[in-house]
C-alpha cells in the first residue's frame, strides 16, 4: 500500500533562476543541490513547514526524458503557463501576498474570496502557475 508522496517535479526553464525564485522569493529550503553528471543537476526545495515533500525543480533539456523536439515543446508549454500548476497554502493570505509581491513575484489574481476559499494566483519565473490559499482554521 502506498503511504505518501515525497517528491513531485516542477519543470523549469533554468535551474539557477528557479533556485533564486523558489529560495529567495518564496522562502523555500534547499534539500538537495547535486550534480548528476555532465549538464545534469538534481535540485529539490521544500516549503519550510513541509520538509517531507521535496519539489524537484527539473530542467527541461534533451536527454533521459526528452528528445530535442519534445524538450522544445515542453519549454513552450511551460513558458505559456499551460503546463505546470500547484496549490500552496499560507496562514495569512493578505500578508503573504504583500510580502511576495514586494519580492517581485508576479500575481495574475489578487487575493479574492471565492466560493471554495480565499486565494490569489501567481506564476513562477518559468511560467508555471500556482494558487495560494489561506489555510482554513
Automatic annotation (TrEMBL):
UniProt superkingdom: Bacteria
SUPFAM superfamilies assigned to the protein according to its UniProt record, in alphabetical order: Glyoxalase/Bleomycin resistance protein/Dihydroxybiphenyl dioxygenase (SSF54593)
Every VOC domain range: 4-135
UniProt keyword annotations, A-Z: Metal-binding
Xref: Pfam families: Glyoxalase (PF00903)
Record-given protein name: VOC family protein
Species of the source: Mucilaginibacter angelicae
